[in-house]
Each structure stands twice: as structure tokens, then as C-alpha cells.
Amino acid sequence: MSGSNTPTFPPPIDGVPAAGRRDDDEPAARKDRLSRLERRAIATKGRLSSPWASGIAIILAILWTLPSLGLLVTSFRPSLDIRRSGWWTVVPDLLGGQAAFTLENYDQAIHGNASLGEFFVNSFVITLPAVVIPITLALLAAYAFAWIPFKGRSFLFVAVFTLQVVPLQVALVPLLRDYVKIGINGSFWTVWISHSIFALPLAIFLLHNFMKEIPPSLVEAARVDGAGHVQVFFRVLMPLLVPAIASFGIFQFLWVWNDLLVGLTFTRAGSRPLTVAVAELAGSRGGQWQLLSAGAFISMIVPLVVFLALQRYFVRGLLAGSVKG
Amino acid sequence: MGWLLNPTTPGEKIADMFIAIALFVVVMGLILYLVDRPKRVPNWVVALAFAGVPLLLLAYGLVRSALITLWSSFFDRTGDTFVRFDNYKQMFTTGQFQQVLVNTAIWVIAVPVLATFIGLVYAVIIDRSRFERAAKVLIFIPMAISMVGASIIWRFVYEFRPNQPNIQQTGLLNQVLVWIGLEPQQFLLNQPSNTAFLIVVMIWIQTGFAMTVLSAAIKAIPDDIIEAARLDGLSGVGMFRYITVPSIRPALIVVLTTIAITALKVFDIVRTMTGGQFGTGVVANEFFTQAFRQNNQGLASAFAVVLFILVIPIIAYNVRQLRKTEEIR
Fold first, then answer.
1. Between chain A and chain B, how many beta carbons pairs sit less than 8 Å apart?
2. B302: which of A202, B249, B283, B324 lies 20 to 30 Å off by Cα?
3. Per-residue pLDDT of chain B (329 residues; tens, 9 = 90+)
4. What keywords appear on the UniProt entry (chain A) (predicted)?
5. In terms of CA atoms, which chain A residue is nearest residue B261?
6. What is the DSSP annotation of A94-120?
7. How much is the pTM?
8. Rounded CA separation A26/B210 (Å)
9. DSSP assignment of B37-67, as one string?
10. How far is A10 from chain B (nearest CA, A)?
């Protein structure tokens, strides 16, 4: 076990692998990768069978799953049972035939006083435009930065990139004041506009990087054939950008759906998203776990489905360095 | 037409949404159509058509807002009197606000370090194992749910019942304490440990992110390096220490700084779990309290500016590191 080879080490070639580099779901690269994967799998076998390592992995997996599982089980228990005993008693009770499950909590959360059903619609109405609008705007801007030569281009691009530094908190109060002034305060429009603005710096930066990876010869060939910028954008680039758009789209979707700060600041009673409603429930009825647990899972179901269905794109977006600041 | 601004029924809301999208598409389409018509258009006109609207939005929404906030941080609570650095002085000298700054520092250090460490260890352990995919999803799922949802999940874990006969604990953590013969705790009320229990929630959320990025970086380590190291007799912890960690250093830095920025801006967790009470306040939460509860615009702006200043070095460092790796490439 010698540490002597550390300093002579070749510098890392890639710390954050580019999107296309990942080896577990690239069908094109599968053939020769597989043998490499197999070789590594065999090589690492010794370590994997170490009981310590597997033990740690299992403990971590349990620790990361148990809290959600507990609340999920709770959301299906009758409220009297929730108050009387812990959710883990369900297991022995089930064996004894005493455990009961009910959908009553969900019914109460959706249709009762909490009326989360209404907020669910709000979240949906907020999220769709707040994903479509910034991505479209960012695509157009990214195209301008990548393929249209104009004066001050690199300066403006750096400026846009730098704007990622600005935390939302800095922008909230001035924006809110303007919304009040022009009288659209509290409507969905303010939330759409705000989410769109906040998403732009990162979206432009990422989509620009993806666009730059497209071979210039493709664009030039289209140009020679007489295509203008608009045609090049829609006919040549857009089809190639679908994976990039999907990965940022999921990001933006999860971010907007899960957002609390923007929703809390810019909405009013009729336009509040689910997160705000659930957070308020936690404040006002913190002890009513039948409502809180069901409410929490109602707010989670959409992002979870999106995440599990489109995980591949989501991970690709993560690895492209796309991280919401 | 009132429903365009104040939709009340679900139908009106959804109609509103489609109108917004349609309006947007029509306007952008018109701009592009107009710029595409004439044959010889100067490049800057085309660039303006493509990038004009987003640049305008950014200039208005971020640049202008940031300047206004910076300006108002030098004014009093109503924004009428110029008070120079009084807001900042108050922030750094009042005990309550000092606590907020200290808490933020703890978040920014503890969350990235612990989440990255756990994520790295997990990524190494499950690398190339048979259950890799499933094992990854389990750790990664908290990333998909909102911080509000995560806070409720953990509030339930921390739920407290007084230790009396006929009363059973319903929070898992207190039940564990009771099982091993200890007194149940008010995890979210007892200072200063309550901040640590809030931090656990953020680590729970962020570890999946660290694990995913680091796992990809580990897979990208060239084979010949690993083989050479193995021939030199490295294995297990030695391999981890001398090969894995140095090879993925750039990824480690990206992960650490990204999580640090997220931790710096933590708001949802603190608000949902304690509301910033019992000495758990952080800068982002205090900004909200001052701006919308205490109506102290000056102090709120000062907190926002501090947040701004704290983010700059983290991002600058990140960008420099990324540049370096690009140069090597």
C-alpha cells in the first residue's frame, strides 16, 4: 500500500462527465462498454463481498427510505390509530389481523377544509407555462449566442452566465412592488413571469453548451442551401436538441412544482400552489397527521411520477452540470 | 374579462394558462416571422429578435432588482430615511441576528461536507454491484420531492410525545430513544441541537445529487489507471484514498459548491419545520421574515445583499475550477 504514486498521477481527465459520456444507458456505446463494465465488475468483486461495505450500503438505503415509508403508511391509517400508536406497529397488527387501512385521509385532504384538490389545479396551471416559456426563450437566446455573430456577443453571454449569482431574494421585493403598481399582483401572470426570469440564466447557459456541441458543418450546409437563421433553428437544431430540452424541462418542472418561496411571495388565496397550501397546513394543523401525511403525498405524487418515468433525462441534466443555484 | 386576471374556477384557470402560452407563442412567432421575411437582414437585428426578449427580462427582473435591493439596504424600514450601514451594523451586532449568521455558516459547511461524504461512500460501495440501479433510486428519490414534503416527512420522524404511561411515541426517532431506555426529546425545540436536526433533512435531500454526479465521475476513471494501481498493490480503502478521490476531484468540487449554494439559500425547510423560531433562523428565512412579516424593508434588503455576497465567491471558485479542467481537456 504505497502512497508514492499519488503526486505523479496524471491529472483528472474529466471530473464531471459530459452528458453523452455516461456508460450505463448509451445504446451506441453498449457493445464495447459492456466488456469494460464486466471487467470492472469482476475487478471490484472483492470489495463488494466485504460484509462491512454491504452493511453500510444497506443501512444507508434503509435510513433514506424509512422516513418516507413511515409517512406513507401513516397516510393510509385511520386518524385514531395514528394518534394512538406509531406507524411501525402496523406490521405486528397486520399479523394479528388488527391493522386497518383507509383512504379517508386523502378524501379529507382533497375535498375537506384543506381542499388540496383546488391547489393541485393551481400548481398545474402555474407549472406548465413556467416550464414552456423560459425554455423557449432560452432556446432562442442560446441560438443567438451560439450561431449568430454580433458585436458584444461574448460579453453579453458572460453577463448572462454571471446572473446565476443573483439569489431570488434580491429580486423578490422590487418585482412584487412593480406587480402591485401595475395591478397584476397575486395573479398567475406574476408567477409565470417571475419563474421565467429566474430560470433564464441557467437555461441559456446550458442550452448554449448543448448547441455548441452540434457540428458547425451541419449548420453551414443548411446555410449553403439557402436556409435563414429561423429555418436553421427549427429545421436543423431543434430536432437534435430534444434530449437537452427534455432534461432541462424536467429540471424546471420539478423546481417550479416544488418551489415554495416564489409561490409564497407572488400568489394570493385563489392562486396558491400546493407547496404553499401544505406548508400552511403544517403551520396551522401541525398535529393533524392524517391531513398532513395525505397532503404531503398529494403534493409529491406528480414530481415522483415525472421523476421515476424520466429519470434518465433528469440524471443526464444533472451530469451536464445543470444545477439550480 | 376579469377572469383573465382573477380566474376562480378550475376551467377558467386552465383556460388562462392556455391563453398565456398561446399569447407567448404568437408574439415570439411574429417576431421570428418578421425577422425572417426580408432576405438581407443585418446580423444584429436577427440576434435582437432571438435574444432581445430574454435579455430584456433579465435586465429588468434581475439586474434592476438587484440594484434596487442594494440601494434600499441603506435605508430604514420604510425606505424613507438614508441610514448608511445601520442595517448591516444591526445585523452583525444584535444577538438574534448573529445567531442567524452563525446558523447559516453551520449549514453551508455541514450540509455539503456530510452530503458529499455520504454520497461518495455510497457511490463507491454500490459501484458495479448487482443492485446498483435500485440502490441509487432509493437514495435519489428525496431529490424529486419538495423541501416542504421532506420537512413534513421529517417532522413526523421527530414527533414528540411526553413519556407517560399509556402514551406511545408516534415519532420513530423518539421511539428508538425509548426502546434503548432514554427519555424522548423535543428535537425541534431544544437549542442548539435543533439546527442539527434541520440540517439532517437537507443532507437527506442532497446526498442523492452528490451520489449521482460522483458515481458518474467514478465510472469515468480510465481503466488503465485502476489496473496500474492494482498492480502496485492498491485495494479497498487505499484505492479509494489514492485513486478514486484524486481522480474525481473536479466533480467533488462541483458537488460541494453546488450543495453549499443550496444550503446557503435554505428557506423551505426552516420555515416549514420551525418557522425560524427556537434559534434556528438562517439568512434566507430571516430575509423573508423581515420583508413580509416585520415589514422592515431596509433590514430585509441587507439580508438579501449578504446572501448575494456570500454566493459570489462560491460560484467564482466553481467557475475557475471548471475552466481549469477544460484547459486540461
1. 394
2. A202
3. 567 777 878 888 888 888 889 888 898 888 888 887 777 778 888 888 888 899 999 999 999 999 999 999 998 888 788 888 888 988 898 888 888 999 999 999 999 999 999 999 898 888 877 788 888 889 988 988 999 999 999 999 998 888 777 778 888 888 888 888 888 888 888 888 889 999 999 999 999 999 988 988 888 888 888 888 888 877 778 888 888 888 888 888 888 988 998 898 889 999 999 888 888 889 999 999 988 888 888 899 999 999 999 888 887 887 777 666 656 54
4. Cell membrane, Membrane, Transmembrane, Transmembrane helix, Transport
5. A325
6. HHHT-----SHHHHHHHHSTT-HHHHH
7. 0.85
8. 22
9. SSS---HHHHHHHHHHHHHHHHIIIIIIHHH
10. 9
As to burial, measured by CB atoms within 10 angstroms (0-12 exposed, 13-18 middle, 19+ buried), residue A243 is middle
Nearest CB to A296; choose among B46, B152, B208: B152
Residues of A in contact with B126 (CB under 8 A): 57
Place of cell 397488527: A93
| A48 interaction partners in chain B (CB closer than 8 Å) | 125, 128-129
> Cα–Cα distances in Å, from B11 out to A118, A125, A287, B24?
11, 10, 34, 20
To which H or E segment does residue B196 belong? helix B193-219
Interface test with A, best of B13, B26, B50, B278 (most A CBs within 10 A): B50
Q: What is the complex's ipTM, to 2 decimals?
A: 0.88
3-state secondary structure of B152: helix
Cell of A311: 429519470
Cis amide bond preceding A303, omega within 30: no
Could you tell me which chain B residue has the CA closest to the CA of A36? B223
Q: Do B24 and A282 touch (CB under 8 A)?
A: no
Query: Grid coordinates representing A191?
Result: 408567477
Rounded distance between C-alpha atoms, residue B115 and residue B126, angstroms: 16
Give the whole-angstrom CA distance, residue B209 versus residue B119: 8
Domains for chain B: give ranges and CATH numbers: 3-73 (no CATH), 87-327 (1.10.3720.10)
Residue B278: which region, alpha, beta or left (left: phi > 0; alpha: psi -120 to 50)? left
Mutate to test the interface with A, among B58, B78, B131, B289 (most CBs of A within 10 A): B58
Cα separation values, A230 from A211, A214, A222, B37, B41, Å? 15, 17, 11, 10, 12
Phi/psi at A186 (5° precision): 90, -10
Q: Which residue is closest to A124 within chain B, CA to CA?
A: B14
How many other CB atoms are found less than 10 A from the CB of residue B164?
6
Report chain B residues whose CB lies below 8 A from the CB of A14: 217, 220, 250, 325, 329
At B26, list the grid cell: 404568437
CATH architecture observed for domain A109-321: Orthogonal Bundle (1.10)
DSSP alpha helix (H) spans, chain A? 30-43, 45-48, 51-75, 79-84, 90-96, 104-111, 116-147, 153-162, 168-182, 188-212, 216-224, 229-231, 238-240, 242-258, 261-266, 274-284, 289-309, 311-319
For B123, the grid coordinates are 457511490
What are the domain boundaries of chain A? 47-101, 109-321
DSSP state of A10: P
Cell of residue B286, nine digits: 430571516
First-to-final CA distance of chain A: 40
Region for residue B181 given its phi and psi (left: phi exceeds 0; alpha: psi -120 to 50; beta: otherwise): left
